Amino acid sequence: xxxxxxxxxxxxxxxxxxxxxxxxxxxxxxxxxxxxxxxxxxxxxxxxxxxxxxxxxxxxxxxxxxxxxxxxxxxxxxxxxxxxxxxxxxxxxxxxxxxxxxxxxxxxxxx
Length: 111
What we know:
This protein is of the alpha/beta class. The chain contains five helices and three strands; from the N terminus they run ααβαβαβα. It has helices spanning 2-6, 10-18, 35-46, 58-69, 96-110, and strands spanning 26-30, 50-55, 86-90. A three-stranded parallel β-sheet has the order 1-2-3, with helices on both faces. Strand 2 (50-55), helix 4 (58-69) and strand 3 form a beta-alpha-beta unit. The relative contact order is 0.16.
């Protein structure tokens, strides 16, 4: 059967799940409060990246940030390593003035 030829060995699967060694990245995701944007943000947070999410509703952004912080690999530890990896801001990315006024200063600080 063709599927049996494509199966990876246990060690190959473990390597694929762990992924290559890489440095932490800064990621910006618009529409990060739900759906695909939230799922992408969660994956980046779980890999230890710093993530900034944007959404039009401040309430939804705040709720998503709280939810995403629970996925941080250092969640629940003490010390400097426990600094949040997720930041959020209300911003309509369709409005260029909001993008410049609201997004750029925090990105310079967080990423």
